[in-house]
Amino acid sequence: MKAKLHSQLQAQIKKLDSISAAPAILTPLLNMLRLPSDKIRVEKVVELVSYDGSIAAQCLRLANSPLFGCREIETVRSAVMALGLERVRSILFGLYVNRVIPQDKWVIDPDAFWRHSLGCALVTQRMAQKIEYPEPEKAYMAGLLHDLGFLVNSVLYNEDFRECLRRAAEQHVPLHVIEEQVLGFTHCESGQMLCEHWGLSKELVDAARCHHDVSLLPTAGPLACLVHLSDLLCRARYLGYGYDEIMGVDLGSDAAWQTLVTTFPALGNMDLVRFTLDIDGAMDKIVATVDSVFGVKKIAALATT
Amino acid sequence: MKADEVEFVAEVARAGAGLSVERDKLYVIESRLAPVARREGFGSIRDLLLAARHRREGKLMWAVVEAMAGGETSFFRDPAIFARFRDEMLPELARRRGRAPVRVWSAGCSTGEEPYTLAMFLLEEKDKLLAGWTFDILATDLNDNSLEAARAGIYGEYALRNTSDVLRRKYFKDAGDKKLQANDLLKAPIRFDRINLSDDSKMLFQKGIDVIFCCNVLIYFDLASKRRVVQHFYSNLLPGGYLFMGHAESLFQVNESFRLVHFLGTTAYSKPTALQAAGAKK
Ligand SMILES: C[S@@+](CC[C@H](N)C(=O)[O-])C[C@H]1O[C@@H](n2cnc3c(N)ncnc32)[C@H](O)[C@@H]1O
Ligand SMILES: [Fe+2]
Ligand SMILES: [Fe+2]
Fold this sequence. Notes:
The complex is a heterodimer.
Chain A: H1 3-19, H2 26-33, H3 42-51, H4 53-63, H5 76-83, H6 85-100, H7 110-130, H8 136-145, H9 148-156, H10 158-171, H11 175-182, H12 187-197, H13 202-210, H14 222-236, H15 255-263, H16 272-294, H17 296-304
Chain B: H1 3-17, H2 26-39, H3 45-55, H4 58-68, H5 79-97, E1 102-107, H6 113-124, E2 135-141, H7 144-152, E3 154-155, H8 165-171, E4 172-174, E5 180-182, H9 184-187, E6 190-194, H10 200-203, E7 209-214, H11 223-236, E8 237-245, E9 259-263, E10 266-270, H12 274-281
Parallel strand pairs in B: 1-2, 1-7, 2-6, 7-8
Antiparallel strand pairs in B: 3-5, 4-5, 8-10, 9-10
Helix pairs in contact in B: 1-4, 2-4, 3-4
């Protein structure tokens, strides 16, 4: 990217921290995001969840919802166990991010954003499992974090980014195409910088950077390719940015597919129609999770606590 | 039903239409054959099959094939398919085809709900996307009774449950008895014809098609017959054409020539243009 814009953006991102008081759980939470899920200690998660009354309440409520079997769960510990570490980790992350973004700065509908992010996380992970990629949890994180740049753009370039979304929705085209025209950079670049600023691993940074164009890096890693494909799939299944895109995508001819299939031949044995139906099957769960945790009304409620 | 009766039904359906009958789903077989037995004046399915078998009567055998081919359908069955056809394919076709008529084929149209739905979608675009062009819809099935019903175009509330009042007023007329009949405007673009998709000689003749809808038909086919039909479809289509199937139907390990394309809320198979094919080899 154009060097000047780049350093400007970088300086702005450093300021993000001071825009809202970063909750004290940020540092331990980011530390936890860097770990593969088998390295996460349940005690540590329980501690983080318990730290904040409203987050603890959210987890309890979700664990007791019909989605997870309506059991009578009363302690944070059993809620964490019922929800699973992976889900709790993304809930924590999402709730934290929701606090960093001031209420009036959201440009993309927060529900749409979290459905897309969580949807992508699940699809990336499932695809990773299907192709026998060795670290499916990392794939999950890459999917969850890939569009953080939207939040950076919302906070730092609010008016211009609103204009991007307006035009993209009107023309039914992908947002990054319009971002390039209006802002001169895309959420891929601002997302990359935020991930770097937060000290996330290089693979996660690269996935954020390349998820709309895997030819950007000479060696786009498998994570970037997986996220790219999952992002397209999610957008094709009404888990996009909250507006309808005109899109006909031939995933099998996509550069990311072609790159992946050489390293992971199992991809060639994947029936994409079936896989897409699986996503439809998981849709209810994604939507219900997002709605019960990040629903707009709840964010508003959180903001006042 | 006895095992040899089931076997007989399966064999007749396979030979007649390329259908694969699930032998363990007795209730399905029986629920399909019972009305045929009644209609043909037999006291039971057993009597029907005995007559078909021993008299080798063509008409009865065919009635068995038709019954096993299924026929469940409705208007706007999978709206995403039609919406994507309109929003993503029509503009592209307009660019490519100039003023030549758009040719659409509803293969396995049953009692006509699918082709009439298509006709409504296209007629609604007459002054918009389709301004200045024409289109025709070929609608085919192997079941003569279904085709007869399709030509008549008379439907009850249940079939029309997803059809808006605006469309009902525009494209239907009152047929009494709480039923509606497709009007001339709606019938005009459709040609109904009897085509058995497993009849190779007939299939070879269909040419120059832009988009094929073959929804919820091939699910009943055995693999070999499915492969043959799909290969025919590939030849029937113009380059750049599309094949739509039911939302759970996949050509994975059935056909390598078609390309799977994801659209918003649905998938379709495309026959690449020469340009696209060259692009993919790069
Ligand atoms: C379940 S209906 C589908 C109707 C419509 N396409 C839809 O999706 O609502 C299946 C239709 O396929 C027809 N069919 C089955 N095998 C066929 C064959 N070999 N040739 C032509 N039509 C066939 C049946 O007669 C039946 O009308
Ligand atoms: Fe993105
Ligand atoms: Fe995305």
